[in-house]
């Protein structure tokens, strides 16, 4: 019995200890929960932003990240200058419903990580009303989720990437035609008009280049064709030699190129030096005027076999005669940026600003992001002054589908007239 009593006492003591331990654990748990409830929740930095951010009594604040320095600086600088030429004039005439447009610009040097940081700053610190005038595919695709989470509209992108269009992006509003539109038109021209069967693709090894490659593949597939060869180079370099040898060995009749102006010009020059003379095509992102300058510097001033598809009319004197917006762009560029020469990139930026101002005017003084979106989605058959109307809709966030063809003539790319191959 003595042993049993001892065991019973030990069991009782253990039960008491267990109860105490359970009590202590519950107490610690309650204290932790209480502490956590007292600590402020870490804010979701990119949660939906206030619907009227960036709107003051006197200003509408918008923000841009683009390549203002570095190897693609011509594109970012001219895109912004084109927009500012019109915005500055609107502000000089009193603004929109008593407010002036303030455009905050940050330089991302065509580097995606910098685009992300700049966009975070624009949304969280500068608290812009909308984002505007972004340049590039690898840069712009990196902020898609950020834009959608913050619910901040983004209008006007110097890229035709499908990823910014499909699936449908409720807060992204494209102005220009897509790369699929451009590459599809180029393939139609080469295959239908010229009867070519051998088309190669030279592209920048990133999201931009892949968008161009995909567009060519889709275009060729209509004719039961595939690229005869592909070659790449690394963004920010001019290392095109390996791609050149690979493509040259396939003896293409035409080469579709997606890249920036300096490496593409080097590629064309080296290819011609080898004694070959195929057709070369680039999408509009190359910046036709910078591309022409690079080619001219390499001794190439004229060639009807070097083609750039465009998404706006040419910015030169001939178009200014009959297109109001081209004339206004040229006049206001001379006024506000006299050091600039009229160019395709600047004209595209100018068209962006024309649409921006139209939407802001139509939305009225009582402005909000929701109202901005509803207003732009209701924009139908709006005459921008470039010969074709702009159209948006609740499920259509691309204003234009039109593609133009230009070829190198006396140091600049001028439009040539093949209506049946213009979308």
Summarize the structure.
With 423 residues, the chain is an alpha/beta fold. Helix content is 45%, strand content 17%.
Distance between the termini: 103 Å
Oligomeric state of shown chains: single chain
Tally of separate domains: 2
Q: What fraction strand?
A: 15-25%
Give the SSE map.
Layout: H1 2-38, E1 59-66, H2 73-92, E2 100-107, H3 112-124, E3 130-135, H4 137-140, H5 144-150, E4 154-158, E5 172-173, H6 179-193, E6 199-204, H7 207-221, E7 230-233, H8 241-248, E8 254-258, H9 261-273, E9 279-282, H10 288-297, E10 303-310, H11 317-322, H12 324-336, H13 344-363, H14 369-377, E11 382-383, E12 389-390, E13 404-409, E14 412-415
Helix pairs in contact: 2-12, 2-13, 6-7, 9-10, 12-13, 13-14
Describe the structure in your own words.
The protein is an alpha/beta fold and 423 residues long. It is globular. The strands form three sheets. A seven-stranded mixed beta sheet has the order 7-6-8-9-10-13-14, sandwiched between helices. Strands 2-1-3-4-5 form a five-stranded parallel beta sheet, with helices on both faces. The chain has helices spanning 2-38, 73-92, 112-124, 137-140, 144-150, 179-193, 207-221, 241-248, 261-273, 288-297, 317-322, 324-336, 344-363, 369-377, and strands at 59-66, 100-107, 130-135, 154-158, 172-173, 199-204, 230-233, 254-258, 279-282, 303-310, 382-383, 389-390, 404-409, 412-415. It is 45% helix and 17% strand. Strand 11 and strand 12 (389-390) form a beta hairpin. Helix 6 (179-193) crosses helix 7 (207-221), helix 9 (261-273) packs across helix 10 and helix 12 (324-336) crosses helix 13 (344-363). The chain has two domains: 59-177 and 317-392, Rossmann fold; 180-310 and 405-421, Rossmann fold, CATH 3.40.50.
